[in-house]
Amino acid sequence: MAQQNRNVIQVKDHPSLVRDVYSKAIINTDVSAYNAVCHRRNAQLKHETTITDLYCQIEELNNQIDRLLEWKVSVTEQLESLVIPTTLVKSKSKSTSKLV
Q1: Which of 29, 31, 5 has its CA nearest to residue 18?
Q2: Domain spans in the chain, listed from the N-terminal domain onward
């Protein structure tokens, strides 16, 4: 896009603002203010992205916790099915106490 030479008029009491004669638009000519706005916007976007990433990580951790809890229940059920019946445990403890 070719840069156009614009006819502009200085806005009264605002040294960094001019009015385009053709379009009547107000134009801010303060480059450092523009750069500061861009920097703030980029910092805000980075901050929002970081927060979104953290929420995703928390969700993944919660999913892993759920899977671990399900695994724990499964292992507990399997171990309970392997446990020696309590009558055998009682008889073994009585025989052990006689030896002492």
Answers
A1: 29
A2: 8-77
- H-helix or E-strand spanning residue 62: helix 31-82
Count of Cβ atoms closer than 10 Å to residue 11 Cβ: 15
Is residue 41 within 8 A of residue 30, CB to CB? The reply is: no
User: Which residues touch 26 (CB under 8 Å, ≥6 apart)?
Assistant: 11, 17, 18, 19, 20
Tokens encoding 27: 């134009």
Radius of gyration of the chain from Cα atoms?
A: 37
20's CB contacts (< 8 A; 6+ apart) are 6, 7, 8, 26, 27
Long-range contacts formed by 86-92: CB under 8 A, 24+ apart: none
Give the model confidence (pLDDT) of 49-86 as tens digits.
Answer: 999 999 999 999 999 999 999 999 999 988 888 866 66
> The pTM is what?
0.54
Per-residue pLDDT tens over the stretch 28-50: 999 999 999 999 999 999 999 99
